[in-house]
Amino acid sequence: MYIEVVVGLPIDKTFTYSVPKELEQDIEIGKRILVPFGRQQRGKPLRGYIVDILSNSISPAYKTKDILKILDPEPVLTSEMLKLTQWLATYYLCPWGEVIESALPPGVNLKPRKETPPPYQNIRHSSYPLKLTQEQTKSLEVITPYIKSHQFKVFLLHGITGSGKTEVYLQAISEGLKAGRGAIVLVPEIALTPQTVQRFKSRFGEIIAVLHSKLSRKERLFQWRRIHEGEAKIIIGARSAVFAPLKNLGLIVIDEEHETSYKQYDAAPRYQARDVAIMRAKFNNAVTILGSATPSLETFYNTSIDKSVYLNLSYRIDHKPLAQVEIVDMKEEYKMGNYGIFSHKLKQEIDDRLKRQEQVIIFLNRRGFATFIQCRDCGTTIKCPNCEITLTYHFQDKMLKCHYCQFQKTAPEVCPKCQGTQIKYSGTGTQKVENELQKLFPRARISRMDLDTTKKRGSHENILSSFQSQGDILVGTQMIAKGLDFPNITLVGVISADVGLNLPDFRASERIFALLTQVAGRAGRGQVPGLVIIQTYNPDNAAIQFAKTQDYHSFYSNEITFRKELNYPPFAHLANIIIKGKEEEHTIKLARTIGAHLRMINKDKTSLILGPAPCPLPKIKQEYRWQILLKGSPKSLQELLKSISTQISIPKDLKVSLDIDPVGLL
Ligand code: ADP
Ligand code: ZN
Questions:
Q1: Residue bearing the CA closest to ligand 1, atom 18
Q2: What is residue 41's DSSP assignment?
Q3: Whole-angstrom Cα distance, residue 537 to residue 542?
């Protein structure tokens, strides 16, 4: 007997092995095995995955090696997962074995479970399906038949915040369960709050599995087994939950589908979970629901070319009005002599809310105290020695920290260059906002939520629950923009809408529009109408203006015109090649070699090749970074990228990473 095996190494091929007679009866596709690997007959034992069993009539023309051992009593990978991972390998140009390894939790083990599962605590079916609004009913009626009749379909559920999208997901899942089909619900990591999870648990009880990045290895494995064994039928999780080993999959929901966190950017395979979900639904004759108040341009565009079905929830439950949005021009404030962080208007409104005992959210997408410190005498700013990026001052521990690597050092009291003593703190971060607020409103109970305050497990939950029960003001980064549903929040202040506006990234306006709309959606969810104040130095910016009216359709038609003119997604696909190395010269040399090679292959100009050029962040963690950006069809891009790995030898001291459909170009 001969089998095809994939190994978990960066090698882009499968290997044929022979099976000793005594192991033949236990061979099954999807099981893991140990194989001898390497030049010698014995070789080093390596883990592999059985991806095919060759028919008896085929025998290879060369001498094969015997496999050593079968590791699993039953397959860890279904044929569906093999198909899906193979698709990923091809599309994202990542060796199949590596994709498989990243789709399985480390330490998978299917030996009979010894430990008994922990008892489930306080799970009750305490919530019952709500009586749907007309729009919700209509959406559900369109979706359900596809789930019941096993037909693949993609839906965009476009609904403003608070319009009842989640209730539609819940009832669609319920319909799926009735038909014997399970569901995967993807939410952005930061939205995996107890609030979201509780809503699902109280509807469906113990058949839920929750997968988030803070699970310990043991907990993750435990959840994986519950799903694999069919005990859990509904999975809620972040990006990688799209690989949950659920059988009888009927529905995949992607909430806040426009979120950039669905794209894995830091390690191969650099997959977009949204696209993987659509492929997985296709392989399962299942349904994908993409939900958002501000759909990504790609997703909305797909509804216009009938690749997916558009469903709309146009008003909030109970017809609660959207919050009113006001824009404050900070240039005018400055002219009037206000040099502080807060505009006159925002201060007044905060004061007003405190008096009325209503709650306030203050949003700023930048953590730390001041963005940078600068010497008033010579103008020196202090940069990270590894990343060439200005260090951020953190007030609590008086440290300068790099937000890209872990570098930190004590903030100097004298300028390291000219010994001047006039150190100026410029810019604003969440810590500084918190401090200033406390000075302005000494009696207010203020809490802060950002990366720095949520490192510990459970801190996220603690901050939110203490704010909910006894807080006045919550200061935070984009972590607080999503999912919070606190009826007593009546004011949202955006300290600066300008953070990120000038990044060299064609998606900058899309991101700002989505973020501002999202933050605005936190206000006025209870009985009192909400007010949002957006401070900016660019009051005429289109994205900010569209956010004021929360008018997605106008934003879309404005933005899609620009994308079309410049041939950006969704009109073309992009691929980004990043060349990294500690030696600047070597890095540049390889980048140029690759560039020249690509131009030679692309003689007929089916793709557009831009660069090589230094990345917008040209040095991170001691490594120089150059990039080549490609525009074209997925097929033409794949051909170009494939030719790099097959035709160019990459020196040991350099790294080349390929990113198909990149979300950020920094
Ligand atoms: P979204 O996911 O679009 O932000 P939600 O599903 O969270 O909206 O709904 C907002 C609020 O309205 C929630 O508190 C939810 O319980 C409630 N809600 C949703 N649908 C209904 C309905 N049909 N009848 C009454 N309340 C509803
Ligand atoms: Zn750094």
A1: 164
A2: S
A3: 13
Structure-block tokens of residue 584: 């600047």
Could you tell me the distance, in angstroms and rounded to a whole number, from the CA of residue 202 to the centre of ligand 1?
15
User: How many whole angstroms from 239 Cα to the centroid of ligand 2?
Assistant: 26
The answer to whether the bond into 612 is cis (omega within 30° of 0) is yes
Residues with CB under 5 A from ligand 2 (ion): 384, 386-387, 402, 404-405, 407
Closest ligand to C-alpha of residue 387 is 2
pLDDT at 619 > cutoff 80: yes
In degrees rounded to 5, what are phi and psi of residue 31? -85, 155
Give me the sign of the Cα torsion angle 176, 127, 313, 364. negative
**pLDDT (0 to 100) of residue 123:** 47
d(CA 216, CA 442): 40
Ligand nearest 318 Cα, by number?
1
Determine whether 7 is exposed, middle or buried from the number of CB atoms within 10 Å of its CB (0-12, 13-18, 19+): buried
Hey, what domains does the chain have and what are their CATH numbers? Answer: 2-103 (3.40.1440.60), 134-317 (3.40.50.300), 320-367+442-562 (3.40.50.300), 371-426 (no CATH), 573-660 (3.30.70.600)
| Segment 56-91, tens digit of pLDDT | 777 788 888 999 999 999 999 999 999 999 999 999
Length of the chain: 666
Strands (E), 134-207: 153-159, 182-186
